[in-house]
Automatic annotation (TrEMBL), chain A:
PANTHER family: DIPEPTIDE TRANSPORT SYSTEM PERMEASE PROTEIN DPPB-RELATED. Residues 94-296 form the ABC transmembrane type-1 domain. Keywords: Cell membrane, Membrane, Transmembrane, Transmembrane helix, Transport. This is ABC transporter permease. The chain crosses the membrane at residues 9-30, 98-121, 133-154, 174-192, 228-254, 274-299. InterPro entries: BPD_transp_1_N (IPR045621), MetI-like (IPR000515), MetI-like_sf (IPR035906). It comes from the Bacteria. The lineage of its organism: Bacteria, Bacillati, Bacillota, Bacilli, Bacillales. Coiled coil: none annotated. It holds the Pfam family BPD_transp_1_N. It is a multi-pass membrane protein. NCBIfam families: Opp3B (NF045471). It is found in: Cell membrane.
From TrEMBL, chain B:
It is a multi-pass membrane protein. The keyword tRNA processing does not apply. The keyword Flavoprotein does not apply. The lineage of its organism: Bacteria, Bacillati, Bacillota, Bacilli, Bacillales. Residues 137-326 form the ABC transmembrane type-1 domain. Keywords: Cell membrane, Membrane, Peptide transport, Protein transport, Transmembrane, Transmembrane helix, Transport. It is found in: Cell membrane. Pfam families: BPD_transp_1 (PF00528), OppC_N (PF12911). PROSITE patterns: ABC_TM1. This is ABC transporter permease. It comes from Sporosarcina highlanderae. Belongs to the binding-protein-dependent transport system permease family. OppBC subfamily. The chain crosses the membrane at residues 46-67, 139-165, 177-196, 202-219, 254-283, 303-326.
């Protein structure tokens, strides 16, 4: 176990290093320059600006400085929001993204689990087909299409909820959370259905039935508990989906979150912010996948992390 | 009721001769793997319906742009912002060219004195949305198919070499994959697209650059499973070359899994193209793809929801169809699910 975790940590570190390096050098080849909007400057003024942001030095030196700062957790200074550090930018935008992600996750997973249970208990009936179809819709319909439709009908036609922005408290978070929740909902519904069907045909369920346990008790106490364990493995794709979703959903609902920040920094050529956000997202996803792998081994002792070899 | 023996004369009976050959006889025709899979797939109604829908959509993507003789990039400002109007259906009260103008519901075709029918309406530049929709579908499908093809070729080659030759080759190749797999797809796609000229090629390269990894891992696992089996050993003992073992024994066995995976690669490529175009870093105007059309539609959603509606419908139906076919194929081709 310790050896496995150590090995994984080394890989995580390598991956992050690779991403940081690749991002840095890709940024240098980007068409356009972050200070292109300063075009009224003359030569000496331009030199001052370049010196201020440290882009007057040769590339390898810039790279060394960037990596040194990165090692200390410093993501650099934004080119567009003058004088603001990328760390501060991300920190100020973390909360909305986190709230949306957490709500989508909780809401989506709970509804998904319920749908999955219903489908498994009433296999090959209307309920099963209904919830399976719903899950297919959730996986298939792109989040931005769903979000646009929600915004059009619920917000701008029926005036039930705010169209966008983040200034109406909890109400502003409902629509974007629902749009984001479709992914986790669909994934967990499909997953729970398959797992439940498998668990329901196992010997200990037959035993529970033979002992006279009622249907409710069997479904929730015996079957669901065992079907829930592998659900942890879906967390990885779900987290990836939430990040992808947040880029467009925050854009659509004009939520001041990290996803919206990323897209706007791409549009404004803000190299430091693009790099900072890229690294943030990558680190987030890499850590989630790592946690999933470790957690799975801990909660289900039948799975051995080392891959079956003793 | 008692049977009367007298009424059943002995000549009515025939003696059964036990024939040892008949015990071995196969009564049903023997089915190949693919015939068997087709039998199972045929029972899956959702997958069959999806296939029909998909074929129709692909046909429309090919012939749709030429159906009404209009070009997708000809602007006609006199005909701008017209709602959909379809002959025949207009009498039912939908798609009858009625839209809002200054808060009133009016037949905009009469207001603007347009005699023609624009089946799916026009956009703000007066371009025919029917033609643009199918042109966009064509581009989206093209990107998805090419990206999926590249994924299959690289994935099968990489996974196959890694799994088949094993040893140090496998070690090195897998270390590379283990690092690459940690990089989130989305991040790579966006970074790659940023440094390239926007266009179809850029999107395809961006999607394929990490897309093959999943395929290569699955192929490697399958090759590892099969290469140790007796039929491969027998072939090797008889002196078959690597080439023959791979093409005649291993590839046919992993083909099913490769097909299933491809069916899930295509919708994810469609999604990424639309996603990139939607946030504005994919295809650039005036090129049409489902993503750019949805983006255009989203901007005017408040006033002309039909501009968003049609491309949103087409992309959703495409994605659902591919996912259902993928599910159906997995049930039909995956021997573990065999009942």
């Amino acid at each position: 176990m310790v050896k496995y975790v150590g090995k994984r940590l080394i890989y995580m570190f390598l991956t992050m290093f690779l991403i940081a390096t690749a991002t840095f050098f890709l940024m240098q080849t980007l068409p356009g320059s972050p200070i292109a909007s300063y075009n009224k400057l003359n030569e000496s003024q331009r030199a001052i600006v370049e010196k201020k942001y440290g882009i007057d030095k040769p590339k390898p030196v810039q790279y060394a400085i960037y990596m040194k700062n990165l090692a200390q957790g410093d993501l650099g200074t934004s080119f567009v929001f003058k004088g603001k550090s990328v760390n501060d930018l991300l920190a100020s935008r973390f909360k909305p993204s986190f709230i949306l992600g957490a709500q989508a996750m909780v809401f989506g997973t709970i509804i998904g689990i319920l749908l999955g249970i219903i489908a498994a208990l009433r296999q090959n009936t209307f309920w099963d087909y209904g919830s399976t179809f719903f899950a297919i819709l959730g996986i298939s319909i792109p989040s931005f299409v769903f979000a646009s439709l929600l915004q059009y009908w619920v917000a701008s036609e029926w005036h039930l909820l705010p169209v966008g922005l983040w200034n109406d408290g909890w109400k502003s978070s409902i629509l974007p959370s629902i749009a984001l929740a479709m992914g986790p909902l669909a994934l967990s519904a499909r997953f729970i259905r398959t797992e439940m069907i498998e668990v329901l045909s196992s010997d200990y369920i037959t035993l529970a039935k033979a002992k006279g346990a009622n249907g409710f008790e069997i479904a929730f106490k015996h079957a669901l508990r065992n079907a829930l364990i592998p659900l942890v493995t879906v967390l990885g794709p779900v987290a990836a989906g939430l990040v992808t979703g947040s880029l467009v959903v925050e854009q659509i609902f004009a939520i001041p979150g990290i996803g919206e920040q990323f897209v706007s920094s791409i549009m404004s050529n803000d190299h430091a912010t693009i790099m900072g956000t890229t690294l943030f997202f990558s680190a987030f996803l890499i850590v989630v996948i790592f946690i999933v792998d470790i957690l799975y081994g801990i909660i289900d002792p039948r799975i051995r992390l080392s891959g079956g070899k003793n | 009721m008692q049977l009367d023996k007298q009424q059943l004369p002995p000549e009515k009976f025939e003696r059964v001769v036990i024939d040892n050959d008949s015990a071995e006889r196969i009564t049903k025709p023997s089915l190949s793997f693919w015939q068997d899979a087709w039998l199972r797939l045929r029972k899956n109604k959702a997958a069959i319906v999806s296939m029909v829908v998909l074929v129709l959509l692909v046909l429309m993507a090919l012939v749709g742009p030429h159906l009404n003789g209009r070009s997708g990039d000809v602007q006609n400002l006199r005909h701008a912002n017209l709602p959909p109007k379809i002959p025949g259906i207009e009498k039912l009260g939908i798609f009858n060219g009625v839209g809002e103008l200054g808060g009133q519901k009016l037949d905009l075709y009469e207001v603007k004195k347009v005699d023609e029918y624009y089946w799916f309406g026009t956009d703000g530049l007066g371009r025919d949305l029917f033609t643009r929709l199918w042109e966009g579908t064509q581009i989206s499908l093209l990107i998805a198919f090419i990206a999926a093809l590249i994924d299959v070729v690289i994935g099968v080659a990489y996974g196959g070499i890694s799994g088949y030759f094993g040893g140090r080759t496998d070690d090195v190749m897998q270390r590379v994959v283990e690092i690459l797999i940690g990089i989130p797809t989305l991040i790579v796609v966006i970074l790659m697209i940023l440094i390239m000229e926007p266009g179809i090629t850029a999107i395809i390269i961006a999607i394929s650059i990490t897309g093959w990894i999943g395929m290569s891992r699955i192929v490697r696992a399958q090759i590892l499973k099969f290469k140790g089996q007796e039929f491969v050993l027998a072939s090797r003992t008889l002196g078959a070359s690597h080439n023959r073992i791979i093409t005649k024994h291993l590839l046919p066995n992993i083909l099913g899994i490769v097909i299933i995976n491809t069916m899930f690669t295509i919708p994810s490529a469609i999604f990424f193209e639309a996603f990139l175009s939607f946030i504005g870093i994919g295809l650039q105007p005036p090129a049409a793809s489902l993503g750019t059309l949805i983006n255009d539609g989203y901007k005017v959603m408040e006033f002309q929801p039909y501009v968003l509606l049609f491309p949103a419908l087409v992309i959703s139906i495409l994605m659902i169809a591919f996912n259902l076919i993928g599910d159906g194929l997995r049930d039909a081709l995956d021997p573990k699910m065999k009942d």
